[in-house]
Amino acid sequence: MGQIEWAMWANEQALATGLILLTGGIVGVAGQFKDWQFAAYGIAAGVFICLLEYPRGKRKNKGTSIERMGQRYLTICVKAFGPLTRNYFVRAGLHAVLSIPGGFMLPTVLGCVCVAIASLIYLLAAIRGEQWEPIMPQVESKQRPGESMKEPPSNPPPRLPAELRRKRQEDAAYVNPIPISVNSV
Amino acid sequence: HFGFSFFVCLSFQGVWLGFNIFLFLYTFLLYNTDHSYFYTRVILGCRQAMRRQLDKNITFHRMVAYLTVVLTAVHIVAHLFNIERYHESQSMDAEELLKKLSCLGENSNETYLNPIRTYDTSTTKEVFMSISGATGVIITVGLVLMLTSSTQFIRRSFHELFWFTHHLFVVFFIGLVFHGAGQIVRGQTVESLSNHNVSYCKDHLSEWGHFSNCPSPEFAGSSPSTWKWVIGPLFLHLCERIIRFYRFLQAVIITKVVTHPSNVLELQMTKQGFKMEPGQYIFLQCPNISQLEWHPFTLTSAPEDDHFSVHVRVVGDWTGALQKTCVTEGEGGKMSTALPRIAVDGPFGSPSSDVFRYGVSVCIAAGIGVTPFASVLKSIWYQFNDDRLQTKLQKVYFFWICRDTSAFEWFADLLHSLEVLMVERGKSQLLSYHIFLTRWDETQASHIALHHSEKRDVITGLQQKTFYGRPNWDTEFKRIADNHPGSRIGVFFCGPKSLSKVLHKMCNSYSSADPRDKIVRQAGNVRNGFVCEVGPGPGGLTRSILNAGAAQLLVVEKDTRFLPGLQLLAEAAPEKVKIVHGDILTYKMERAFPKQLAKEWDDGPPDVHIIGNLPFSVSTPLIIRWLENIANRDGPFVYGRTQLTLTFQKEVAEVCS
């Protein structure tokens, strides 16, 4: 149990709770229940929690972090709030506060209890020093050729001076019809 | 009266249910054991099919869980509306009938209908004060916690969290059984219905209680019935837990502990009365490490061994702790009393036990998924050591795809001894194994290249060379299918899901028994190619060509009688089929297909095929004509080395050869 990152579970719990609050709120508003204003709050709070919790954070320990589908844009939004979203104490407090108005009306009571639990799990995560790190896309490092492949040579190989390189006429196996100079193609 | 009718009802239900169960069991046992149905069972393969369904237990469990969550949501929403309506009926603004009904129960000799007794309360308070409401909230919260800790991400990465939270199911079921005890949903009693005529009295509220035709209606709560549904499955689960506990008490002796490279630990154990089949798995528990954790491991020993063994890869907390307790540090062997106590539950079945039921079996393993096949191969080794045993299995193809070379080591010994045994017994054709290494670094690559021409493979030490990269399944399956035409080949796989899907597709595409599809397959890769079919006739081969995915199909048919059928086929495959009503001997093939398809003679063959079941009278002159064309590189061979796939009479073929 030592390697558990509680924040990951808190994140799943909070996301589910957002949906529960939303559903409860819709029931309260649609049925025109007494005190339906709390239900309207439930809808707003539910949507807010869903948006906040949708981007999954990066795992602290070894292991691949799996993104949720399409979370890229929300990650950027959530990241923009800096320490407010990174720190889990803040999140725990935020969830605790959000849960309170849900307790005043029956359809949102379930959401209230679940958000409170999520808040407790976040508190546990924060005590253990976890933080929310955004999953950013990896910048593809350029393909480097293997170690044995060095840069291509930039200088021509060392050669004897041109006069010594020119073939002596008497040793030639054949005679060139066109005279050849050093730089002729 | 009420109680008596309740018992009658219950006993009738019980009798009816019991009778059904008895009928089912009787018929099942009859079909299962009676001799008159022996051959029926043989044909239907009953035993396997039933067991196969039990292998899918986790999928079934998940489906039931999803259904539970959905229905819980529906149930809660419905009751939210109900409670709100009950509450509203108590208000001053409610309708006459509702107010009247809600007032019932004020006097001591009246029974009540509305569970909410006064308007001066909140629905939340009412819910929490009733048994149904309180249990409902508790079990729903438990269900939500179970749900959020069971997502795939949490299961894969933090399994203990999932496992422990899932035990909230105990709370869930206990709460569920008591959920109905509050009897909130109330209905009019049978007795009251006979006195109080609802359709009349609902419009004559003033007469209630005063005249004899509308006495006050009596209500009673409906009794809880959930326990009838859950008691059966809970009983079965309890039995399973008891069996596990019983197995926990049985002694398991660890006879040997072997550490293999790449963090693999082998445990050899014995237990009294342990019987296994190759490829099965067991659950292991080590009380020293954790009282509550049971982990599954595939058995790697054969049934013929005097012990049973598992190979454990050290990846997490539990396996790490297992390694620490089992492996001695420093010199000297550990005394057997120092080895930890282990409990074993199982063995449980897996599909690989069926390997011996086929004449030809293909076993494919990825990485650590080789463990069930280790057991199978060992079993084969034993069976072939023992000459007396006749096995149905004649040929085994074994593919192992591995990422590092170090994983080969513990398994290579087994393969090596199998190799030796096969050669000794003169049955070297029995096992054909192919090992694929999918990842390597530069030093390894240079080392391999250096020793390439040696007789034994440099990595595994086996005679069969290791292949590098992933296998081309098309080629492999084609080869196997061609080697064993018309036989039933069992394909077994243990590994990641993505590869499983690929293999499933391969099995399906190579499983056709239709000889016409086989002919088209023989032509090679027809997909997106240009095909000319000679003499399609009624179009059997034509359909197979179209099914194989040809881009353009040109059919040359001389007989007018077949043209209408071919035209229908052309309509069914628009833009793909062109019909030429003519004689293949005079048809100018060089104009048939676009010029871009042409390739040089020395390059590979172009995407142009000529396929045909040659008409009887024309096969010889056609072949002679085409041979001339090849020499002159004209006719169909302007496109390069056009591929011909033809069938003709046996005598013609003999004359050709």
Automatic annotation (TrEMBL), chain B:
Listed transmembrane segments: 12-31, 60-81, 127-149, 161-181
Topology in membrane: Multi-pass membrane protein
One term under GO cellular component: NADPH oxidase complex
Secretion signal, residue range per the UniProt entry: none
CDD domains reported in the protein's UniProt record: AdoMet_MTases, NOX_Duox_like_FAD_NADP
Family: Belongs to the class I-like SAM-binding methyltransferase superfamily. rRNA adenine N(6)-methyltransferase family.
Main localisation: membrane
Record key words, sorted: Cell membrane, Glycoprotein, Heme, Iron, Membrane, Metal-binding, Methyltransferase, Oxidoreductase, RNA-binding, S-adenosyl-L-methionine, Transferase, Transmembrane, Transmembrane helix
Protein name: NADPH oxidase 3
Binding-site residues, S-adenosyl-L-methionine: N508, G535, E557, D583, N613
Chain ranges of the FAD-binding FR-type domain: 244-354
Cell location: Cell membrane
Catalytic activity: NADPH + 2 O2 = 2 superoxide + NADP(+) + H(+)
SMART domains (UniProt xref): rADc (SM00650)
InterPro entries xrefs: Cyt_b245_heavy_chain, FAD-bd_8, FAD-bd_FR_type, Fe3_Rdtase_TM_dom, Fe_red_NAD-bd_6, FNR_nucleotide-bd, KsgA/Erm, RBOH/FRE
PROSITE patterns listed in its UniProt record: FAD_FR, SAM_RNA_A_N6_MT
GO molecular function annotation: metal ion binding; RNA binding; rRNA (adenine-N6,N6-)-dimethyltransferase activity; superoxide-generating NAD(P)H oxidase activity
GO biological process, one term: superoxide anion generation
Record-linked Pfam families: FAD_binding_8, Ferric_reduct, NAD_binding_6, RrnaAD
UniProt xrefs under SUPFAM superfamilies: Ferredoxin reductase-like, C-terminal NADP-linked domain, Riboflavin synthase domain-like, S-adenosyl-L-methionine-dependent methyltransferases
